[in-house]
Amino acid sequence: MSAVPTQARADATRTGDSLVVRLGGVWRITRPLPAWPKVLAQAADGGPADRPRVVRLVLEEGERWDSSLVRFIYEVQCWCRAADAACDLAALPESVRRLVEQLARAQEKHVPSDHAQNFLTGVGLAAADLWRQTRDFANFVGECTLSAIGLVKRPGRFRWHDCFAEMQQCGAMALPIVSLISLLVGLIMAYQAAVQLRQFGADIFVADLVGLAVVREMGPMMAAVVLAGRTGAAFAAQIGNMKTGEEIDALETLGIPAVDFLVMPRLLALTLMMPLLALYANCLGILGGMIVSASVLEIPPSAYWIESQTIIDLSDVSSGLIKSVVFGILVAVAGCLRGLQCERSAAGVGRAATSAVVTGILLIIVADAVFAVLFNVLGL
Hints:
Transcription Regulator spoIIAA, alpha/beta, 12 helices, single chain, 4 strands
């Protein structure tokens, strides 16, 4: 007859400040298991105040065990950490120690961060994180620059089919939302200007205000913000899903750079389509101002158009187009970068898309501020 397997046991022996716990029996998660508080209470000599300073775990030879043993040892480690006691695992097999370490690392990832840090620590951590993100952004811009140089030297190796498909997605498919936003922005600006200007009998100057504001600022910016929320997030989600599915790893294994294969078609497509969308947004914004002027101020559309032509010149249009090109590059770079930095999980893809939108809009605002100062210095 075969021997009946014994239950899991943990026999504790107290020697001075040391506590030796001998583990034996069959450790199965479906069977009754020893509880560490009971084992500790049975070995206590002088009550709770007389806690051991060293806990040494020993596993008897030939015993069978599963993850329940690893969980018990990790519980002992946590108690020792809280009681400021040493936990000696040297007598355990290497396989058991390795599993305990893996469990400890997995549990540490789910420990909530300590929000009780002082102000200087928070500032230092934020500065270090900002420096890291700036360095990653600069490295990615450098890789895109090298890829663009390679595109100029060898245009035949570029994936033009993917570029044209992305141009359709970020250009033609974005016309409805850009039309709605641009028209409403023009309507709002004209109506707000009309309320103030009609007090001075300067109704016709609504065309000047709306025309300059739309062509120089609002048209390119609103188109860029719309594409940051629409196309930038799509870029991050697409590339993030490819990273989660290990498709990017497969490309790198085959010697195909992800920047050349995935980033450059999207970057070129958005850079080419953004000026066209900005011009389209300018037209819709001026049309919105014309509608308000005709309905509220009773200004004929012909007079509104003539006044707009007198105030808007080529420098205004060109400045808006220059901004739109830079905005398109920034949105594409932000979306692709966040996609490549995505964590390998579904939640990571969502965070990457959100981060792409936030980063894209932030870069747009910063770039627009830089352009405002630069154009003021140049007198444009």
